[in-house]
Predict the structure.
Amino acid sequence: MKILVTVKRVVDYNVKIRVKPDGSGVELANVKMSMNPFDEISVEEALRLKEAGKATEVVVVSIGPAKAEETLRTGLAMGADRAILVETDAAVEPLAVAKILKGVVDAEQPSLVIVGKQAIDDDSNQTGQMLSALLGWSQGTFASKVELGADKATVTREVDGGLQTIDIKLPAVVTTDLRLNEPRYASLPNIMKAKKKPLDKKTPADFGVDITPRLTVLKTEEPAGRKAGIKVGSVAELVDKLKNEAGVL
Amino acid sequence: MAILLLADHDGQTVSDATARTISAATAIGGDIHVLVAGASADAAAASAAALSGVSKVLLADDAGLANNLAEPLAALLVSLAGSYDVLIAPATSVGKNVMPRVAALLDVAQISEITEVVSADTFKRPIYAGNAIQTVQSGDAKKVITVRTSTFAPAAGGGSAPVEPVSAAADPGLSTFVGDALSSSDRPELTSAKIIVSGGRALGSAEKFQEVILPLADKLGAAVGASRAAVDAGYAPNDWQVGQTGKVVAPQLYIACGISGAIQHLAGMKDSTVIVAINKDEDAPIFQVADYGLVGDIFTILPELEKAL
Ligand SMILES: Cc1cc2nc3c(=O)[nH]c(=O)nc-3n(C[C@H](O)[C@H](O)[C@H](O)COP(=O)(O)OP(=O)(O)OC[C@H]3O[C@@H](n4cnc5c(N)ncnc54)[C@H](O)[C@@H]3O)c2cc1C
Ligand SMILES: Nc1ncnc2c1ncn2[C@@H]1O[C@H](COP(=O)(O)O)[C@@H](O)[C@H]1O
């Protein structure tokens, strides 16, 4: 069985981003970029399924600028077999990403697509569910455990009240949550090997997808800041402040 | 303008998140119809009908809707969508699961986790873990929206909307419910609690978490939260995680105990009215957002605090 894994190039999770003073967006020049953390978890899951003999091939796909090749190479260095870059410099909304991914799925015919729960830049949490809808497939979102059978997968999902387990028919889309696994690091020899692994380049037009945004960003601003308050010296002082100054006790 | 609002409920009552979403829908403006989908959910429908601002409740009562599976629930919403300009839901795990599916089936964008309604087609939403706020305008004829409920007040009671049955759409039969492992607790729910006591990696074990955090929470009548590190390490269940990828909370008082204050954690709690941080590292970033900071060891401070209350 073939597994397709989506990987997005995003600002590294350790970077504290800055909003451009003119309100036109977020400062991305000279900022460290990495694979979206949830996508590392997705790649890891696919590799484990392959290592367990449940999958035969792991293909990573990214939609983004030429530099997204680095993100795909990271996936290849972790152990994916091949990569597909759908190249565009435009900002692509989740709906258009899902449409492009549907084109990739139609061409590749995987039995399982593993998508991150959320991209940590746009915080949309949409793409996997949208892809599943466009394909008419089942979806197992926010997965903290995936057991793959021949024609179904059993997925344990992180929900507001705790955990929910469902069976989903294959082919399916699964989205990954933080507790699914701990992603491996790519070793230096594997990073070298990854440079020679196949990487196909496509464009959104190859899949006939119109990527014109549906939403217009009118403005991007800093959130209302919070100032540091005071340090108190003792528990007694803390309780006094909470009662008499803040009035919350 | 007509708005279809997907209620979040437990079969008995609609959630606080639902009542807050009604306020967001009211700000958009128009007739608000609340959809209660489930099996034997009449009581929940009645509780939705009693919320002010609701003009009608649609009750879809069907065994196939019992567990909020995405595919039949999305099919139901799509079958009703024709009469509505806006489809809206709280950004709970049900809303986040189903609404993007609905949006894609309708070929429209979803606007995720709005925190403010600027006008009927323009909304504010946080990006980058809340480190930037975008104002977006939707050009789609139908709008699919999820709401970050911590920034909207719950709608008041006193309403008496009619309840009308609707039929479930054909179930595509793609997924089946296997089981739930839901945490049961008498403590207030995280997203609606007035006070939250949250524990981090510093707790060191599930036993210590229970021994040190829970008595303080119970004394305060507080909900319990946790950092990702505490959840990953198994000190606290997953549904207690507060942050960018966990729950977003805004209580009157948030007490962060042994939590460093990573941006992903701050994303989930920095809109709390009053923040208290207790940490032995005086340079911990959590102090930059705390109204009251206490530098010291949680294992001595928390029991002392519990006694002092
Ligand atoms: C994609 C992604 C999503 C994430 N989502 C979330 C999220 O939703 N929520 C979240 O919380 N995190 C999230 N994180 C993780 C986040 O980056 C931090 O790793 C995490 O919040 C750290 O948890 P912590 O503060 O408990 O642990 P640490 O950072 O290890 O901090 C422990 C703190 O305890 C203090 N301490 C230790 N011992 C004591 C003691 N005895 N008394 C007092 N203080 C003590 C230390 O000084 C330290 O400041 C996410 C990360 C990624 C990559
Ligand atoms: N441009 C992209 N290229 C590849 N994968 C993407 C892209 N955008 C989103 N995704 C995938 O969809 C997930 C959720 O993203 P989002 O819906 O934007 O929060 C990410 O973790 C990725 O796996």
